[in-house]
């Protein structure tokens, strides 16, 4: 798909803001490790998305900020980038308001239609409550059976040579394998952000402590030493939360028992698709159907992790 045809492009056009910053992205995989590079080349290959397969030497020459060890396959896609989450959310809220949507902020929904600041009747209800989804589904006697909420955290490092990690010359990266790490070039400030994916710090959705683990940054720093030796000292660590089901697939569509209730769950990797998911649920609510193929995001899954 061409960028001009994507929902992000339409949001940029409508808002007059640059929301997507193309930096290129690289996924590192240990040769002979649990995840073959074909897992990351099949999809771009079959969808006409250009990619390059690089070895460690080529990576280290192209981006001097990296010093990845030998025996690594790297899949590079030039059109990967960063979206600035808070700017994007503000842009979407502004567009929604400008198009007649009434946003009730800091207002708790107690059931699908009763909210803490009054009652509403609605023909259709869309639930996009992420980690609190099951709480809201409770009164409907529905739930996503196997859902795990984790407190995650990301760390900002202050390199002594931030130019080396500028988005124009340093990509977004993911280290695949049994333990997944990921990171970003400098963005908005002269720091580089990195984190470990799926930290298994399981918690109840209402008990997000916002207190980072002290252990994780130590492990992360050791890992960063091995591939980005110029990362510099740790500056700060902040927490957020993931909600995931075992298959990590999105859940988008109407509930089988209550087709007027439409669910959208992003399974910990949905921000990049927010404008598309928003459009799809709006189409489902207004037209009763969407032209996008959402068959891969069903309400029930073979693993039994969802049956709604
Ligand atoms: C460390 C980390 C890294 C990530 N990295 C990426 C990435 O690189 N790319 C990517 O695409 N995604 C990424 N994600 C995932 C992405 O951020 C989420 O999938 C996305 O933000 C979920 O959006 P949402 O609107 O569905 O849920 P949320 O943003 O969680 O919003 C749910 C909202 O529901 C509200 N709510 C809950 N209960 C009620 C109630 N009773 N009444 C009213 N409101 C209620 C909450 O207040 C909240 O505002 C990452 C997440 C984490 C934690």
Features:
sarcosine oxidase activity, 308 residues, FAD-dep_OxRdtase, 3-stranded mixed beta sheet, 8-stranded mixed beta sheet, FAD dependent oxidoreductase domain-containing protein
Please bin the fraction of helical residues: 10-25%
What is the mean predicted local confidence, pLDDT?
A: 92
Question: What is the count of helical runs?
Answer: 7
Number of strands: 15
**Quaternary organization:** single chain
Q: Give the low-pLDDT segments.
A: none
Q: How can the largest sheet be summarized?
A: 8 strands, mixed
Give the end-to-end Cα distance, rounded to a whole number of Å: 31 Å
Overall shape: globular
Beta-strand share of residues: 15-25%
H/E order of the elements?
Answer: HEEHEHEEHEEEHEEEEHEEEH
Question: Going across the major beta sheet, what is the strand order?
Answer: 3-4-2-10-11-12-9-13
Alpha-beta classification: alpha+beta
Radius of gyration: 21 Å
Explain this structure.
- Residues 8-284 form the FAD dependent oxidoreductase domain.
- With 308 residues, this protein is α+β, with helices and mostly antiparallel strands.
- It is 23% helix and 23% strand.
- The strands form 4 sheets. An 8-stranded mixed beta sheet has the order 3-4-2-10-11-12-9-13.
- It is globular and about 60 Å long.
- It starts with 6 loop residues before the first helix and ends in a 21-residue tail after the last helix.
- The mean pLDDT is 92.
């Amino acid at each position: 798909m061409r960028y001009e045809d994507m929902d992000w492009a339409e949001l940029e056009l409508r808002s007059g803001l640059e929301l997507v910053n193309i930096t290129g992205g690289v996924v590192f995989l240990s040769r002979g490790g649990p995840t073959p590079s074909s897992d990351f080349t099949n999809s771009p290959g079959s969808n006409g998305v250009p990619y390059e397969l690089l070895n460690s030497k080529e990576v280290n020459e192209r981006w001097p900020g990296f010093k990845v060890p030998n025996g690594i396959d790297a899949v590079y896609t030039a059109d990967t980038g960063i979206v600035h989450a808070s700017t994007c959310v503000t842009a979407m809220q502004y567009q929604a308001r400008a198009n007649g949507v009434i946003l009730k902020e800091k207002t708790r929904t107690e059931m699908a239609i009763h909210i803490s600041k009054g009652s509403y009747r609605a023909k259709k209800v869309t639930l996009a409550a992420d980690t609190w989804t099951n709480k809201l589904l409770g009164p409907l006697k529905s739930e996503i059976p196997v859902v795990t909420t984790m407190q995650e955290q990301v760390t900002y490092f202050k390199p002594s040579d931030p130019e080396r990690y500028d988005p124009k010359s340093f990509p977004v990266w993911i280290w695949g394998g049994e333990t997944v790490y990921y990171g970003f070039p400098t963005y908005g400030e002269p720091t580089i952000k990195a984190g470990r994916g799926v930290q298994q710090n399981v918690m109840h959705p209402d008990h997000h402590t916002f207190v980072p683990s002290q252990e994780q940054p130590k492990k992360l720093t050791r890992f960063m030493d091995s591939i980005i030796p110029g990362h510099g000292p740790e500056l700060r660590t902040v927490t957020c939360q993931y909600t995931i089901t075992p298959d990590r697939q999105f859940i988008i569509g109407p509930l089988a028992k209550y087709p007027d209730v439409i669910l959208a769950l992003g399974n910990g990797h949905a921000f990049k698709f927010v404008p598309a998911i928003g459009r799809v649920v709006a189409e489902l609510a207004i037209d009763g159907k969407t032209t996008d193929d959402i068959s891969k995001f069903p309400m029930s899954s073979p693993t039994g992790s969802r049956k709604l």
